Structure formats: C-alpha cells, structure tokens
TrEMBL record:
The keyword Chaperone applies. It holds the Pfam family Rotamase. This is Parvulin-like PPIase. Residues 1-40 form the signal peptide. The keyword Signal applies. Residues 209-306 form the PpiC domain. One of its GO terms (molecular function) is peptidyl-prolyl cis-trans isomerase activity. PANTHER family: CHAPERONE SURA (PTHR47637:SF1). It comes from Novosphingobium barchaimii LL02. Keywords: Chaperone, Isomerase, Periplasm, Rotamase, Signal. InterPro entries: OMP_Chaperone_SurA, PPIase_dom_sf, PPIase_PpiC, SurA_N, TAT_signal, Trigger_fact/SurA_dom_sf.
Length: 458
C-alpha cells in the first residue's frame, strides 16, 4: 500500500485542510426515505424534511447490491473492486476479517465512482492525462517503493491478486484530478500579501508552542445514521490497533480532503483543531491512536505521527555519527550464558578510548563494527532517542539484542545539532494558504460531479 500512498503529488499544507461536510449524506438519506411522506411544499428552498414516523416501503437494501456500477456509461466491475481490495489486504498482511471486507468493498466502490467521475471530467475538459505520463508515474512508484523494475512490480501485483491496470487506473484518477484543479481551480485562488503577513506574525507569536503532526480518518454521519457510523469507526480503530495500515484505511474510508495523502494533516497547532479534537490530541503520545471522537457532522479517528515546538530547534533533528559494535552468540546458547557474555562484551567495549580505538578493541573481542555518519536521532527507536542525545562523543548506550541476533552496542562518535527553524518564507506560506483553499474548492467540485452523475447499480 506504500506504493499507493506515494501517488499523490499534492503539496501537504501545515495548515489544517478540513471542512466538516457530509459528502454523500444526501444520497444516503434519499435511499433511506423510500416513498415516505415529505411535506416539501411548506419547507424553505433546498431544505430536506424527514417525518418523525418515517416508514420504509420495499426491501431495496443497498448493502445487498453487488459491487458493480455504471457511471455515466462507464462500467465498474466486481473485478475492479477485488483488485483494489487486494492492495489493502496486502498492506494489512491479510489481517482483515469478513465483516471488515464487506465494508471495504462498499467504500472501494464509492472511491472508484469518484475516480471515474474525475477521469471523465478531465476528458471532457480536454485535460486528459496521456498514457506515457501514467507509465512514467507507475515506473517511479515501482522504483521508489519496491526498488524494482516495472516487470517485477507487475509480477508482485498479480501475485497479491491485483493488477498493473488497477494501480494505473488509480494513478490516472489522481493525475486527472490534479490536472483539473490546476486548470479550473488554482488560477482563481488568490491570497493577499496582507493575509500572508498576518499569518507570519501569528506564527512568530506562537514560537515555542507545540505543533502536532496528525493523521485523521473522518467519517460523516447523518443524524439517523450516527450509531451505525460510530460502530463502523470503532471497528476500524480495532483493526488499526491490531496492526492495520492507517494510511490504507484513511485512503479508503476518510471523507476529509486529506484522504489522498493517507490522512496526513501535516503540522497543526491545537488552536486550529475543532474543540472536540483539541482535548484528545493534547494528551496523545507519538504513535498513539484515539477515536472515534464525535465532531460536528460525524466522527474522527486521530493518530499522532509526531510532535514539535513552533520555530524551535528539535534535538531529534540532530544528525548523529554512530558506530554499531555487534557480537553474535554461539548457536544454542542459554540465556544465562548469553547474559555473562553480554556483561563481558560491554566491559571490553567500555575500555575502548573513543571511536578511534573501538575498531581495534572490537576485533580483539571477535566483534564487527559498522559506521554510519548520517543517522537522524528521530529515525531511531523512540525508546533510545532520549538516551542517545544525552551521550558525549565516545560514550555508549547499554547493550541490547537477542539470543538469535546476538548483542549490539551503539557508540556516539559525533553530532551535528539542528539549526533554529525560522519558519516558512513568505512564498512558502503563501503557497500553503493557496493549497488550503484549493483543497476546499476541490471538495465542492467533486460534490457537484457526484450530484450530476447518472449511476446505475447492478
């Protein structure tokens, strides 16, 4: 699923890109109403009136439909759904139960409908994406995410039950949408110099306050469907806590504009979040998940990717020069014997006089040394980040390892501390504000395409 996540070329704004709009909720309401009595003649223009004693006539349950549809004449087959589903199953190592599979199929069908509308609109607007551009993006995905050539990528997709055509269709949909936004939306977006300067001033005034990089899955809920949506969101949280891919679930389930980038909100401050989310986000630790949280219009699932202070150098951005000294254990060694060997090894390494001497000492102990001068502290496991940042050159962390992999010791040989972050430039902030508005217009644009579409379900 990593391959799919890299398809979006949209720049991620550090400002929240949310509009709590219930996209598609009108369609759900229309299906639920059936032939119920509605006093539309007495309602204001555009208002939908639902009687308190609504009665459903007939047995037209949309959940019983097969996962196929015809969108303005273009067919979406069950195979299309199956192949897209295979990408999600692979991203979650197959850990998806039968009930979750049913929900995923319905969501994938909705995504394919949106994708089809975007491709159709691009073609109608003479902004269709050329096949050569699709092939180039596909090859780039293969290289960046799989370190493979296109042939190996094709074989992988077929092996997991998907296909190159399915992934290329998704690429075409995303590139078509970008082309449409660049032509029909971006030229009409304007951010004034005064607005940019005002935001820069607010940013500098917030120096030292905390920023949060959050992932979100937003699910809209009409008043009569809140319980069902809540239960679905709860099951998604359970899947995520069992090891499911947050990026994959965000792309398939989230109705926020951040879905195309795996739910990544970018860096935001608590004041930019709805009040309901401010409370829960404040107490999150990196890597933690919370939800579903009720917000206006639906429910949110939040995931804290990282945390930092505004315009303040983060020690975790320091670039470290490290040496890793490794000593394997004999096959079949007992835990007691491994413990003794670990103590002896640690004492021997401690006798080394810094990084210049450790290679010779390690050789004498039968150990191997690996050097890396470009290790970011934030890329190390969370449990050792704080400890290693407190070391001086030549000092080591306590030994770690396992009976199978042997024992390892990290020695700090140097550290380049990060420079103080001056924040975005005028041009960068202006681009970020423009991106925010483009994304909001994009949501309205897609909503209009859905409203005008002719869709036949099989």
């Amino acid at each position: 699923m990593q391959a799919v996540n890299t398809l979006s070329q949209t720049r991620r704004s550090r400002f929240i890109r949310r509009a709590f709009v219930s996209v598609g909720s009108l369609a759900a309401l229309a299906s639920a109403l059936g032939a119920g009595t509605v006093q539309a003649q007495s309602a204001p223009q555009g208002e939908i009136v639902i009687p308190d004693d609504v009665k459903i006539f007939g047995n037209d349950n949309p959940n019983l439909r097969r996962a196929t549809a015809v969108v303005n004449g273009d067919v979406i087959t069950g195979t299309d759904v199956d192949q897209r589903l295979a990408l999600i199953v692979a991203a979650n190592q197959g850990k998806i139960d039968e009930e979750e599979m049913k929900r995923l199929r319905l969501q994938i069908l909705r995504n394919l409908i949106d994708e089809t509308l975007q491709i159709q609109e691009a073609k109608a607007a003479d902004a269709a994406v050329a096949d050569a551009q699709i092939d180039q993006s596909y090859a780039r995905v293969a290289q960046q995410n799989f370190n493979q050539n296109v042939g190996a990528m094709d074989a992988y997709l077929k092996r997991i039950g998907s296909s190159p055509e399915s992934l290329k269709r998704q690429i075409r949909g995303e590139l078509s949408w970008q082309a449409l936004l660049q032509r029909n939306v971006q030229p009409f977006i304007n951010v004034s110099d005064d607005e940019v300067n005002e935001n820069l001033s607010r940013l500098k005034a917030a120096k030292g306050t905390e920023e949060y990089r959050l992932g979100e899955i937003y699910m809209s809920a009409a008043p009569d469907a809140r319980q069902q949506v809540y239960e679905n969101a709860t099951k998604i949280v359970q899947q995520l806590r069992s090891g499911g891919s947050f990026v994959a679930y965000a792309r398939q389930y989230s109705e926020a504009t951040t879905a195309s980038v795996g739910g990544d909100l970018g860096w935001v401050r608590l004041a930019q979040l709805p009040s309901e989310l401010q409370v829960v986000a404040r107490d999150l630790e990196t890597g933690q998940l919370v939800g579903p949280v009720e917000v206006p219009g639906g429910f949110d699932i939040l995931y804290l990717i990282d945390k930092r202070q505004v315009l303040t150098a983060d020690p975790r951005d320091a670039v470290l020069s490290l040496k890793q000294i490794s000593l394997p254990f004999p096959k079949g060694v007992s835990e007691a014997e491994a413990g003794k060997r670990a103590e002896s090894f640690a004492a021997g390494i401690k006798a080394a006089k810094g990084c210049g001497d450790v290679d010779k000492v390690a050789t004498g102990l039968g150990a191997q040394v690996v050097t890396n001068d470009q290790v970011k502290a934030r890329d190390l496991p969370a449990q050792i980040q704080t400890s290693i940042l407190q070391l001086s050159p030549g000092e080591t962390l306590p030994p770690f390892g396992s009976l199978d992999e042997g024992i390892r010791i990290l020695m700090l040989c140097g550290r380049d501390d990060p420079q103080v972050n001056d924040g975005p430039s005028f041009e960068q902030l202006q681009a970020q504000l423009e991106d925010d508005r483009v994304n909001k217009r994009a949501q309205t644009y897609l909503r209009d395409l859905r409203r005008d579409a002719i869709i036949e379900y099989n």
